[in-house]
Automatic annotation (TrEMBL):
Source organism superkingdom: Bacteria
Region (Disordered): 81-100
Organism: Ideonella lacteola
This protein's name: Lipoprotein
Bias (Polar residues) ranges: 81-94
Amino acid sequence: MIITASTHAATPSEASLDLDDCEVLIGQRQASAYKKWRAEMQALSQKGDRQAIVALAGVANNVMACHEEALVPEQGWSMSLSTPGGTTETQSPTGIPDIGKRPGVLADLKQLVDRTHSAGAFDPAYRRISAEWVTKYSSVLQDRLAQAYEDAAGAYQSDCVLKRAIGKRDLQFSCAADRRVLAQLVPLVPADVRAQADKRAAEWAKALNPALPD
């Protein structure tokens, strides 16, 4: 159900927060403490703190999982996430069919894409995760498709071409997931855009210095 993707140390305001709890994440419980934690993490992330960037990405992922569980409880689950600490497989609904009519949920989705994309600057797993969400909701994220393709291509270059083992990640799983997402995005992105994205993705992967948070 919920994915714990953050690997940061707990801050004082987080000590009593359960960041896997949907009631906390959607504001039904401990709203003040959660707001304070987000403000702290946001301030740190703006300074380039990788732990905070990963923490915000992981929680944003959980927020969206909560929305999906609440809005499409009868659907099958299929989402997967590879974290710096290893590979975790989970399940998520196939998508909220009327998400475009839900401004708050759509805003959370866009924030999730932004935050996983930011974490993807130094972790190919998050590049793929960001691309997965865009692919899943491509009907309302048309303006993110080119970015998503480049993100997926970067993950593919790192995991499948360069075969860089980062943390305890299962490269076979990661590479297979990268291929799947990339294949889904190919028909959605023009060939000339893909060509330029492939070039930048390869350059990014070669230059990557994956100093991941502990």
